[in-house]
Amino acid sequence: MTDLLTLEGVHTNIGRYHILQGVDFTVPEGKTTMLLGRNGAGKTTTLRTIMALWPASKGEIAFAGRRIEAMATPDIARLGLGYVPESMAVFSDLSVKENLILAARDGELDDKRLDWIFGFFPALRKFWLSRAGSLSGGQKQMLSIARAIVEPRKLLLIDEPTKGLAPAIIGSLIECFAEIKRSGATILLVEQNFHVAQQIGDTVLVMDNGTIVHRGAMADLAADIPLQERLLGLSLEAHQ
Questions:
Q1: In what residue span(s) does the ABC transporter domain sit (predicted)?
Q2: pTM attached to this predicted model
Q3: Which residues in the chain come in under a pLDDT of 70?
Q4: Fewest CB within 10 A of the end CB: N or C in the chain?
């Protein structure tokens, strides 16, 4: 199994706060890796550090064998990384169509890929010409994910995509992520909905206090309730 992403001894300081304190992990190519942990463990900071939105103060980050920790965010994105932030960060004054055009290569949308995206998120077709700011929270999340996959990506970094969403929309997201994985993409996904994590995760990383404290198969963690409670302070079963 080839590792597409590798972090070695990564530290991140934000102001006077030392958030990441020597993060080490790998993300295997073609798999979905879940990044779990309690609130404040450093999960979002990890994703933002990989994308150079917050610079690593120490350590190495390699994507497909290439060091990227000193690269600018746009250059990292051009290597084939897509990022879906927790805040969604859609362009509120632009239409759904315009948001996707901005994310597309050379501003050209592929009709076949759009139809594929609409299959998961039909609301985006319905509100194609509507301002993104007028969408509901769930619809904005759909748009944020659609922007990240409007072009094929080698690696997707996704931060809590199901937060605040209705169960029906979560079901569509699960189908979407499964299809993205079948297409050959690799996913690193931060998620607090452990039922979702159990369904789509192949491997799992657990963070605590800015370091990785557990790594292994998602199925093994899902089957070990005492380990879940020790690492996360609760069980997956309690959140299904």
A1: 5-234
A2: 0.89
A3: 1, 234-240
A4: N
